[in-house]
Records
---
Amino acid sequence: MATVTLQDFRTAEKAWWCPGCGDFGVLAALQKALVAQGVAPHETVIVAGIGCSGKIGNYVNSYNIHVVHGRTLPAALGVKMANRDLLVLAVGGDGDGYAIGMGHFVHAARRNINVKYIVMDNHIYGLTKGQNSPTSDRGQATKATPLGSVEASVRPLTLALAAGATFVAQGFSSYQDQLARLIGAAIAHKGFAFVNVLSPCVTYNKLDTYDFYKQALHDLDGDAAYRPESRAAAVAKVMEKDDLVTGLIYKDPESVPYEDALPGFAREPLAGREMQLSPEEVAGLLAGYR
Amino acid sequence: MATVTLQDFRTAEKAWWCPGCGDFGVLAALQKALVAQGVAPHETVIVAGIGCSGKIGNYVNSYNIHVVHGRTLPAALGVKMANRDLLVLAVGGDGDGYAIGMGHFVHAARRNINVKYIVMDNHIYGLTKGQNSPTSDRGQATKATPLGSVEASVRPLTLALAAGATFVAQGFSSYQDQLARLIGAAIAHKGFAFVNVLSPCVTYNKLDTYDFYKQALHDLDGDAAYRPESRAAAVAKVMEKDDLVTGLIYKDPESVPYEDALPGFAREPLAGREMQLSPEEVAGLLAGYR
Amino acid sequence: MHASSVEWRIGGDQGEGIDATGDVFATVAARLGYHVYTSKFFSSRIKGGHTHYTVRLADVPVRAPAARVDVLVALTQETIVRSLPELGPGAPIIADAAFRSEAPVGGGRVVSVPLTAIAREIGTTLVRNMVAVGASAAVLGLPLSEFARYVEEKFARKGATTVRQNLDALERGHRLAMGEAGPALPPRAPGDRVLLTGNDAVALGALAAGCRLMAAYPITPATDIMETFADLAPKFGGAVCQMEDELAAITAAIGAGYAGARVMTATSGPGLSLMQEGIGLASMAEVPVLIIDVQRAGPSTGMPTKNEQSDLMAAIFGGHGEGERIVIAPATPEEAFADAQLAFNLAERYQCPVILLSDLALGVFQQTVNPGALVSLPADRGQVLAAPDAGFARHHVTDDGISPRTLPGTPLGQYLATGVEHAPSGKVSEDPANRTAQVSKRQRKLLPLQASADALRLEGTVGADIVLVGFGSTSGAIAEAAAALSESVRVGTVQVHQLWPLPAGQLQKALRDARSVLVVEQNSTGELRQLMRVAGLDGQRVHSLLHSDGTLLRPDAIEAAAQRLLAREAV
Amino acid sequence: MHASSVEWRIGGDQGEGIDATGDVFATVAARLGYHVYTSKFFSSRIKGGHTHYTVRLADVPVRAPAARVDVLVALTQETIVRSLPELGPGAPIIADAAFRSEAPVGGGRVVSVPLTAIAREIGTTLVRNMVAVGASAAVLGLPLSEFARYVEEKFARKGATTVRQNLDALERGHRLAMGEAGPALPPRAPGDRVLLTGNDAVALGALAAGCRLMAAYPITPATDIMETFADLAPKFGGAVCQMEDELAAITAAIGAGYAGARVMTATSGPGLSLMQEGIGLASMAEVPVLIIDVQRAGPSTGMPTKNEQSDLMAAIFGGHGEGERIVIAPATPEEAFADAQLAFNLAERYQCPVILLSDLALGVFQQTVNPGALVSLPADRGQVLAAPDAGFARHHVTDDGISPRTLPGTPLGQYLATGVEHAPSGKVSEDPANRTAQVSKRQRKLLPLQASADALRLEGTVGADIVLVGFGSTSGAIAEAAAALSESVRVGTVQVHQLWPLPAGQLQKALRDARSVLVVEQNSTGELRQLMRVAGLDGQRVHSLLHSDGTLLRPDAIEAAAQRLLAREAV
Ligand SMILES: Cc1ncc(C[n+]2csc(CCOP(=O)(O)OP(=O)(O)O)c2C)c(N)n1
Ligand SMILES: Cc1ncc(C[n+]2csc(CCOP(=O)(O)OP(=O)(O)O)c2C)c(N)n1
Ligand code: SF4
Ligand code: SF4
Ligand SMILES: [Mg+2]
Ligand SMILES: [Mg+2]
């Protein structure tokens, strides 16, 4: 098809996020990255979770499946296994990905299926109106923890690295160019690529604000001393910086995606093919049962 | 009560594991640790998962609850919240804890409830007869992966550290004294304490054998250069050693357990108390609804 | 209309303070002595999108929305368009001048008040809605003084300026709308009523019952229970554990129930589905635990902000295998308060999971409640042994099927609780005779519930021409429809309060005489009707009225359906 | 006995090769031309603990265990004790000499063979069981040559020594037992039968249907499906994704179904409970997906190695809200092979989840199958648009409720699939009229299934004195009981193959004439009976035979229950 433009990835619907919500920036950067990578809307599938963040699929003119809370990653695996020619993106919130979806996150990372995972991390449950999320700060008062949360926060970058992810990056909703670049690099990666995006919730989270991030974030892309090539160094760096970094944190250049590594698995899409066995093939299989 | 002895913690039932199973060693070490810590059988609750490993509760004369697959940790949290005077141990297999139970594992670690978690890690699904588990080696052929597994293995120690666990140790079923000591230290720890135990499955796992471990394991307790006091150093060490270590890996001396940190939460057990509100108390609460 | 009632509504965009304004109006109406029923229209989004808040004032208890809106405050044009079909003839529409020209307003009549302009004059657009409240008071002939008192009380902590601005807004709105004709209600003696949602009532009832622990995961429309409990429980030494998902929530609750605490979890449909495996564990291991399911429109994510009663089958039959469960459904906040307590009693007496089946309408809409009607039940903690004897067997096969239990911490009471089939001792057993004995023991436990005194709530069923049957919040609309119908026919009502075990015999008896029966449900497959069939209740004279489009079922719709049915039968 | 059949059993401890030995015996019996039905007794443990493997040989198809064991090979004393109640009078018990002295052996008679000693002489105790097989062949008068041929074929890759040792064992066992009287079966012409379990048949059927992807999590008794598929699928470009849990398994399957692949997952009760939320998503988003539930005894972990049919209600009603599902239950491996294909056709035609309800007995016990009976069904891939036009709306409201879909990758076919209620376009919608239209569209889709040609499998129902109704593996025992009963009464049978939508009209018609109806189920609450009641089928003449102690329901028990019922009715 002809070159795609931003317009090709837009839908008629107006995004319903609160004015100022960080998710607008994620949407914009995602659309830019898709255009920059030259993928076609009909060959893109977005698997979205439940949350304010999960609405993002409604605003991208691609194939979309909006699954149940917490299950974007297994659904994305299914889509990719069915049709490996598609670009498959899983997107969702921090509650979706790191609370109810935590198990899938760790396993997707180690499985290394060629799926891109973008988390819109606002450190809060937006859609259910402001309860604490796994990434909320310790001490943060929310509707469910009026006297302050007492749990240590989940550190998504550290966890992803510990789980074996082959591509780990973090962006900030306001840093559009970097974010679009990181999502583009994730798309280009051969394997599971994880981009955590700090995306402020202006309505329910008064701690993790734009201003806070602008002050606190350390940019690894701009840090000449840092090279995103060693898992050990990456873990040490994100732990040192308390996850407050942006940029490409780690990329395994040797990554072989799950669907390529699976012995015997077809190199063509399963979807759209008729693969009924012939009577002879069935008879052949039955030989093993005599 | 009088001093407890090993006998107090035994049941009439004979353990049904296959001869040579690593789980016998875990059972023995656990019983020794309980005796060494001087806890009473009726004040001990074992929450066991589903698997060969999960049978362990049947052989310890304590209160036992054998829950559904993967849910030992939330159940243990419930027991502890209901009665904080009890010693609460969660025990289960690697499939139970790191596949279906992965989300709970990460969250229990960051929540830091005063529960002890012992995983009998045989790198295989024993009870269902030999499918690969999250800790199976890449390339390992199992019944579900006849041509070899293609997924990176879960590294429980690294993950626990990344998740924020305040006590992380690894034992080996054959190293009884060390294992009993580690479990004892876990019991003494104020907060969530995680002990991964390498416990060979002699029937379905021909790779991770006693001989292999005896050769491969590096003992951190005996390593004068190692001090289990820094999370960063601990992560670096276990990554360097590919998780093939034994001993105490990390302990946070400042750990405050969840149940102590929760604002307003009672210092006495909830269980066994009558706490109905008086009509006056109800009336007082209703004042907020006028 | 059998009762003198007025329905007021304010509509606009989400995030514009519609909820807060509705609360002011409802609270003052309650203080003025009216019975109040509120309902809301809202969406799964945070800001923007249409919302409205409806307050019905009446001189008798009302538990349902009215057939018509009598006064509408419209902050957006969309409000008028959306409420058109419900507007009564000549109903005043209080709106900014801008709306005057925009047709159609249907049967309504715009009372133009420059809400925004006045608010700007006062110095903050935040008081715009308060101008509308003042105007509403004028149109409805409600004393402004009570609104003023409310503002002085509740806004005091926001500072004198805020109080003054709001008072100003009230007055100016009132002044401008004075003389506008509107429906009037007879004045009432100020009453001691509180405004409660079913969710409030459940949280309060649980606290009253001695519950100090809740393990849950947020989900609309159940989240308030958790939030209310998180607010109140720490004052009494309790806590909410916000878990990572519903699987963790139910299992944590089971752990606590096993250890002897009164514990609950609350969720809505998707969470109930996730809890099915855990609930089965509680059935098998005989652990008391309370699950609140505040139903919303399904299946799947469905319509999270819309009412439905479609989890009935899943609550009863949703688990694999055949585990014992008790399911009760309150219809009002008073019942919700009592049922939270009853549920703990049932769970501990029968050592099994109890599902308290609420619904969005009951759960999140405020209603007036007479505090005297919030009854405290004595606690039944079930059979717990403090000093078990040597022969203690946890699942001892008793005549009534109930086996005394020990709590962890009790000397010599150690046993294994398990989801695997077990011998009386608790040890795993696959022996066929034992299996039969344990299955029938567990089933036998619940037999007495067939005779529960409050399984059904009957009204006028004897010799009725028609009996209306329903459960949960629908019962309010049914009662009102029955009252209206009773002017022309003999009408009875049955609220099925204990849905499972379904009291088949009692139901059979209650419906025996009825010439026709109409089962009224807010779902699309007639789940209660199906249950009644399982219990052997059916036949030609039983009919269904189903409603599942996401709107609330109104009394007039039930009345009309009953009239149609009666007319058909008369032929 | 209506059919000439013999039941052989070998029992011992788990881990002693009982399974492998049973397989040898069953395979050779099949090669000899007999119809074979096997069944196993085993526990949730790996080594140790009693197990036995039973092989029934017959000259007509048999689908159930016999009333009596005719020949028992006992490797442990426990084997004799446990099998006592089933031993036929004078039945030979082939056992090591050690057992001779130990009483009681009930009606049996010990044929003492020094199994262990001979094996030791041969040089390896591994061939002990083969000595017993040789002895069994002698007792039953089966030609040893066929056993020898089997050993030569299957053990060849283990080397010549192994082959020789096993042949030796066979011969020596045979020699020692020659002359011992035993039940004899008429010789048969060697047949071309294969030995299949239902699990094998499902895996093969899925492959035959073009399914190349399975996402699953191991669980007894469904794991074999996954293992078989993992073995075979890669040969055809397919794969198994072993997921981290059942939540992941169902959602991965939904993702693949959405993307256009034929995909399945397989589980047992606990996994079905965990999948309920996901299944609801497939209903709402109209995604084709196949879930195999191989039932085991519940609730909760229950008895994982014991048969039961107790997930019927959960399969149909287990999800919150009201999502469309199709549930079919095969009774034999042949049906399982066909149903795996049918299930994909139904899922893709009706765009909804299909649950193939199997059970442990069908799933894991081998039976002989005529390869010619493994029928290939033409694939129905449903309505898929390769070139959608500009007005494409995924959930277009059509007359038959089926809306053509596009697959990702199709230009201009982009749409949003969601578990939220949606407009025809797929976009989220809360509009009441749209809600009603979409709900009724989805419900309407399945109406034609009321008339499915193979929803019921009827035999002799017209003018029957008694009709036996059942589903799944129980149908085999029912058929045999019916054959026995038919000697004295007119007996009909109904196998409910399509459990949901329940073909109420067809069932009504099939049962119309019956003087009495006996619904036979392996569960404790009569789930099929309850379903029949929901469908309006009940009344005095319908009775239940329930069996849920973990053992297999045998034909003689059904026959006896039917006789009792007939006797009672005759009064
Ligand atoms: C099984 C289930 N549990 C709970 C919910 C309710 N729920 C909807 S969104 C959400 C969390 C939202 O937080 P997050 O994922 O961080 O997304 P955000 O809204 O912040 O973008 C929850 C708990 C649900 N839909 N399904
Ligand atoms: C929900 C659910 N899914 C699957 C199973 C089946 N199952 C039983 S044990 C087990 C895994 C056993 O592996 P592991 O936890 O490592 O324990 P092990 O037997 O190796 O000690 C599985 C998958 C189950 N019981 N419940
Ligand atoms: S509530 Fe927060 S996350 Fe949700 S749309 Fe508003 S700002 Fe964004
Ligand atoms: S199968 Fe493995 S894990 Fe299970 S009891 Fe045997 S040796 Fe132990
Ligand atoms: Mg969030
Ligand atoms: Mg294991």
---
Amino acid sequence: MTATATASTPTADNIKGWSRRDMAKRLAEDIPEGWYVNLGIGIPLLVSDFVPADREVVLQSENGILGMGPLQTKRTFDPWIVNAGKQNVTLKTGASIVGHADSFAMIRGGHLDLCVLGSFEVAANGDFANWTTSLKSVPAVGGAMDLAVGAKRIWLIMDHTSKDGRPKLLEACTMPLTAPGVVKRVYTNLAVIDITARGFELVSMTPEITFEALQARTGAKIHRKD
Amino acid sequence: MTATATASTPTADNIKGWSRRDMAKRLAEDIPEGWYVNLGIGIPLLVSDFVPADREVVLQSENGILGMGPLQTKRTFDPWIVNAGKQNVTLKTGASIVGHADSFAMIRGGHLDLCVLGSFEVAANGDFANWTTSLKSVPAVGGAMDLAVGAKRIWLIMDHTSKDGRPKLLEACTMPLTAPGVVKRVYTNLAVIDITARGFELVSMTPEITFEALQARTGAKIHRKD
Amino acid sequence: MAINKIVQSFADAMAGIKDGSTVLIGGFGAVGQPNHLLDALTEQGAKDLTIVANNAGSGRETGIARLMDMGRVRRIVCSFPRSAGSVVFEELHNAGKLELELVAQGTLAERIRAGGAGIPAFYTATAYGTYIGEGKEVREFKGRKYILEEAIKADVALVECWQADRWGNLRYRTSGRNFNQPMATAADLTIVQSQHLVELGDLGPDDIHTPGIYVDRVIHVPYGDPPAAAPLAD
Amino acid sequence: MAINKIVQSFADAMAGIKDGSTVLIGGFGAVGQPNHLLDALTEQGAKDLTIVANNAGSGRETGIARLMDMGRVRRIVCSFPRSAGSVVFEELHNAGKLELELVAQGTLAERIRAGGAGIPAFYTATAYGTYIGEGKEVREFKGRKYILEEAIKADVALVECWQADRWGNLRYRTSGRNFNQPMATAADLTIVQSQHLVELGDLGPDDIHTPGIYVDRVIHVPYGDPPAAAPLAD
């Protein structure tokens, strides 16, 4: 638990670790063929660029698309197809459309193998906070809380620390929760970390850093896998 | 309340009143254009034969048909279309099909203007019993209880008395209820009777009988409309 | 005579909507927005409205934003009130002139579906243990905790679709289905603007997204395509 | 590699079904019955089953009736157990060898839909104040009384459809949709017999009744038409 105390002090840092594209690629490679996956708005959507071409993964968008393809181009333009981030996207061959009630029934009924989300904070008990940093101004929640409890697995893709060096992987979240106890794995710029009954467990880390330096940048104990 | 006492004594009876087809015709004429109507299995289905040809009424069948047409003939045979009574029926132009969950959402959500059912008994408070005469043997319920609470109006079409002359319109049902307090109108071989806050209220009756004779064949007080 | 739900004017489409109504408004992003019906509702004048929609509008000139800007809305129930362009919402909400009920998007969809399906309330894991779930009844089923959510049943639903016939049978075009489909089922008066009118029977029985029983009025509004979401790559 | 849910044998279709499973069985009347899958399940040998279906089978030679007659079923959840021909059900139930849970048809459909949608329980007016509702929790919402019903989530669903592709996207033919559609969503293992196999993309995105996410295995069973319900008039 001394790690926590150390880590809550901002750490002067010139270790950048993996880029967002590296993180997305690493995560994409961990998705097996045939999984049904929802990618949150923003960085998570990058994951779709890195799913190996010979691997069929079916992307869901919470506004009712199953089988979402890449962003539209001028050549494929169809303004009637948008994803949850309200971008114009394509449909893959085999795609299907449902309305919002059926789409969220799919999400909340435990049918997605994986949902990848960004996050402000994650705790060693699997709590995470990704919908608002504060309740002072009016927050917007969208489908985050539904995805958080509905998918079989929640994986987060996020920076390991804030810009001023404070850890985002914590003993307990400080921001309003999206859902308690649901995160299974976190992909950061410094490491890939599972969340198990023991708390954070290291899967892999960037060679730019030592385990001790990683621990120092993390707000709760990191266990090594047995 | 003396009526009740009188009526519970079987009444030797050679008044037949209206035929089933008469009852069905009378009920059909009371259905306005544009109503969505579910007709129960058996006698209620007869009603569809008497909807005036120039009046569009949309029939629902609880296994997912909206816009049910007449029974199939050898000429129109399609074994893939059945109604709730498991008869091969036709679809009208404009018909739509849904699955069982969506069909009962339609029924239970209060979207049907009317459901016509047969019944063993009905009470002056709107309770009715049409699914089983007894719980001694294994009963089957089907969609009766869903229709009973879901439709905007429940109208019953039934004999006024049992074969041995006992009233089926009662102060309180003796058989297991299908639903409490939902019946709005009863079409029998002797009369058409509304159920209001006062109880049974006479709408019309066969000229073969007097009001007193009708009352004698009824297990609760019949009020005349004001 | 025959059933004919097609109306010829926006005034007929909006007839009878009362002050104080709860109004469901379909659409997600720029797609499937019943903007012409919203403008007609603004014209019609009903006020003190509660509106239920995924977003709280953007800009000031049209749709939900205009209705709010005209002071017709007392309360909004939505999942994503704040977005680029939600200026009217923020002004009114900050000034205390517009109540907000924030609902998770899936819970919103399910509450509306429940309203149409005769389910007064249901349990869901969504928002348990969060700010949004605070104060709601918690109950455990098979070792997991859920909160109780009540149905949303409205006076009016405004819906946009691709094809409609005189019975009110509807089909949506791809992402235009969104909230339009559940909302069509959950109001006493469902009003639809349709890009195309088709003959009864043109929509096959296995291909209808919203059966006509849910629809009260249809008006033909062939406005064309929604705007592109953002500039596209070549 | 590619996703391919199509299996070539009934043994592959039934692989892994365990004793004690809860099995949803689609169909209504003679239409949409997954009878070939039921026979394959009988062959596969799993026993001590709970089955969920609208009816309790008829005859003795096929389908649910045969599965029960072979002693594989411990409990049945259905709305209409007794009908012409339900001889096996009556024998076993009367002999105390088969438990029955009688459920109103709409509640059955909604409980299954809830199982697929992550709703653990919901309130319904159906069966309040009746024998079937006895002992269930009663609660009032807006002045009306409802009972609490819990979701049905199963180990296996057996489904019949008209068209299927290798992703498991399904379309049903008219009355064949029935319980097949909600049941496909509510099991850990959904097995489908399809009259036709089609290429991926043959089913338009707006025309799919069951998205492939709900389906695990598809087997091609072009058995033709169900029998006529009764002799027809000329």
